């Protein structure tokens, strides 16, 4: 926990490598002091086939799944910091966005919990 899943157009990983993008999101999430650095997970999916407003404009969207318990202001700070960093990396990309979803502690399970 947390999981940051980056969806983007295929062209994005031609501008910067997946490793650079993943590291930027990881470093930014770690810098908020909301998570243990060993728990941060970041993945990237690039898409060849998509539409954004009936165009093929480049895009980046991050689905951030975090354990419940952070305040709205903490989550807002996290999302704004990640978007700020990506905007610096990809100033020409028209769509850069994130949404943060809370995992419910009562229903979350992984293999170490069994």
Could you characterize what this model shows?
This protein has helices at 12-15, 18-31, 72-89, and strands at 3-9, 41-47, 59-67, 95-103. Strand 3 (59-67), helix 3 (72-89) and strand 4 (95-103) form a beta-alpha-beta unit. 32% of the residues lie in helices and 28% in strands. The mean pLDDT is 97. It is of the alpha/beta class and 114 residues long. The longest helix is centred in the C-terminal third of the chain and has 18 residues, at 72-89. The protein has 3 helices and 4 strands, in the order E-H-H-E-E-H-E. The chain starts with a strand and ends in an 11-residue tail after the last strand. A 4-stranded mixed beta sheet has the order 2-1-3-4, with helices on one face. The chain has one domain (2-103): Macrophage Migration Inhibitory Factor (2-Layer Sandwich), CATH 3.30.429. The relative contact order is 0.24.
Q: How would you state the average pLDDT, rounded?
A: 97
User: Within the largest sheet, what's the order of strands?
Assistant: 2-1-3-4
Based on CA inertia axes, which overall geometry fits? globular
CATH architecture: 2-Layer Sandwich
Strand composition percent = 25-35%
> Number of domains in the coordinates?
1
What is the succession of H and E elements?
EHHEEHE
Approximately how much helix is present in the residues? 25-40%
Runs in which pLDDT lies below 50 for 5 or more consecutive residues are none
* Strand elements, count: 4
> Quick one: CATH superfamily?
Macrophage Migration Inhibitory Factor
């Amino acid at each position: 926990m947390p999981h940051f899943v980056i969806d983007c157009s295929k062209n994005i990983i031609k501008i910067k490598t997946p490793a650079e993008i993943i590291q930027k999101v990881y470093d930014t999430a770690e810098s908020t002091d909301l998570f243990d650095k060993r728990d941060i997970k970041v993945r990237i999916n690039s898409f060849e086939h998509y539409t954004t407003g009936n165009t093929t404009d480049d895009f980046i969207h991050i689905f951030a799944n975090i354990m419940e318990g952070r305040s709205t202001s903490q989550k807002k700070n996290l999302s704004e910091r990640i978007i700020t960093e990506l905007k610096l990396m990809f100033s020409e990309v028209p769509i850069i966005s994130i949404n943060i979803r809370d995992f419910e502690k009562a229903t979350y399970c992984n293999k170490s919990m069994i």
